[in-house]
Specification:
The chain contains 22 helices and no strands. The N and C termini lie close together (8 Å). It is globular. α1 packs across α9. The protein has 430 residues and is mostly helical.
Length: 430
């Protein structure tokens, strides 16, 4: 059952990120239809994230209380309605409203998915499990790009959006029919015993926890990576076409290649992290140092495309820059959940929603930079890339210095007498 859950969470992330990225793949026809400037297009990209951080926290808290299965089902049905509703969009204001609402209801998916996967897998496999969920995001954002481009070309961008709504509906039905909320029935009893604890949280202590170096700098590192996460779906297609001079078909293929290679890279980093953790139970060595080193190298490779602008090198560098920088996405949630396991959904939502604030800033900032660059679009794109690389480099170094997770938390959970509900999962219960 755990693998069925993980596979469906993977495909849920595919849909989630396809919904995010298709707007970038349809940028040219949408901008032409509504006569949009680069600044206005940046506003469209940013609007998706205006409510995303808030609803991410709220939705994950609801999942902690009422169950991930129920909340994810509701979210997916809402995506379906919104994607079908895109057919009625006739002007920029309606396009922005649609993106705001879609972002609001898609915001909770990632933290809920990370927390839900965490229930089903032991510590030695959580990095891999989360990398699978993150991999679904990369598939949705980049690997299926040629398919989405074909749908946009053949049917038009509105019909292509509606087809993604149909995919959401199919997923919602399958998730309700094929999965369970938890690995064992006893888990329900554990949650009943903890219900009062879940209803009462000391706000002061929780805020102090979020302000601790481990939580704070993990969140900032995640934030820095997310500036790249949102840049890829909104600006990469246009960048490859306008700055690297790729035709649409080559652009779609390049986006797919970047996605495929990057999945292999950050999955490999996650598996290395899991392997080291299994060997030594050392959070600093296996989680923090591995991720920080990966992000530093990713930032350097990202910045290199400014200097070496040969199309082959650009695609190659972006493959590894994306994969290495994204290493924080699967490992960050494991660090945050470790800080307060009984509030796993809430902890991951703080992480992802804080990171998604980058989604509000990055698209608008990129559009503004390109606009003020004057006649040189290439100069504007290069400045935006350099800014992202600098942010990633800075916060990955701070992450390595200040993040010191307590290894005792997972050790306690693995003790036979532990009352943490994760013990029920580690036993490989059928």
């Amino acid at each position: 059952m755990r693998w069925v859950v993980l596979v469906l969470l993977f495909f849920g992330a595919v849909i989630n990120f396809a919904d995010k990225s298709i707007i970038g793949l349809a940028a040219v026809p949408i901008m032409k239809e509504f006569n949009l400037t680069y600044t206005e297009w940046g506003l469209v990209g940013s609007s998706y994230y205006w409510l995303y951080p808030i609803t991410g926290i709220f939705g994950a808290a609801l999942a902690d209380r009422h169950g991930a299965k129920k909340i994810l089902g509701v979210l997916m049905l809402t995506w379906t309605i919104l994607q079908f509703g895109v057919i009625a969009i006739a002007a920029l204001p309606l396009l922005i409203v649609y993106r705001v609402l879609l972002g609001a209801f898609e915001g909770p998916y990632s933290p809920i998915a990370y927390s839900h996967a965490d229930k089903w897998f032991p510590p030695k496999l959580r990095g891999f499990a989360n990398s699978v969920v993150v991999g679904g995001g990369t598939v949705g954002a980049m690997i299926v790009a040629p398919i989405l481009v074909s749908l946009i070309t053949i049917f038009g961008w509105k019909i292509a959006f509606a087809l993604l709504g149909l995919a959401s509906l199919v997923w919602a039905v399958l998730f309700q029919l094929l999965t369970k909320e938890s690995p064992v029935d006893v888990y329900k009893e554990v949650r009943k015993k903890k219900k009062e604890k879940l209803e009462k949280i000391n706000l002061k202590d929780f805020l102090l926890l979020l302000a601790s170096p481990t939580a704070l700098f993990t969140t900032l590192a995640y934030f820095s990576a997310y500036t790249l996460v949102v840049w890829f779906p909104v600006w990469l297609p246009i960048y490859l076409m306008e700055a690297v001079n790729m035709p649409a078909a080559q652009m779609g293929f390049s986006v797919m290649v970047i996605g495929i290679v990057s999945v292999a890279v950050y999955t490999g980093v996650s598996m290395l992290s899991d392997y080291l953790f299994k060997k030594n139970q050392n959070w600093r060595l296996s989680r923090v140092y591995v991720v920080a080193s990966s992000m530093v190298l990713g930032a350097i490779l990202l910045a290199s495309v400014i200097v070496f602008q040969n199309p082959i090198w650009v695609v190659t560098a972006l493959c590894f820059a994306k994969g290495l920088t994204y290493a924080i996405l699967p490992i960050g949630p494991t660090i945050m959940i470790n800080e307060k396991r009984e509030r796993g959904g809430l902890m991951t939502s703080i992480l992802t929603s804080s990171g998604n604030i980058a989604g509000i800033i990055a698209p608008v900032l990129t559009g503004f930079i390109i606009s003020v660059a004057g006649g040189s679009k290439l100069y504007g794109y290069n400045l935006s890339i350099l800014f992202i690389a600098a942010i990633v480099l800075l916060f990955s170094i701070l992450f390595a210095i200040f993040v010191k997770p307590s290894s005792s938390k997972d050790k306690n959970m693995m003790n036979k007498g532990s009352t943490d509900n994760s013990d029920l999962i580690f036993s490989d219960a059928k």
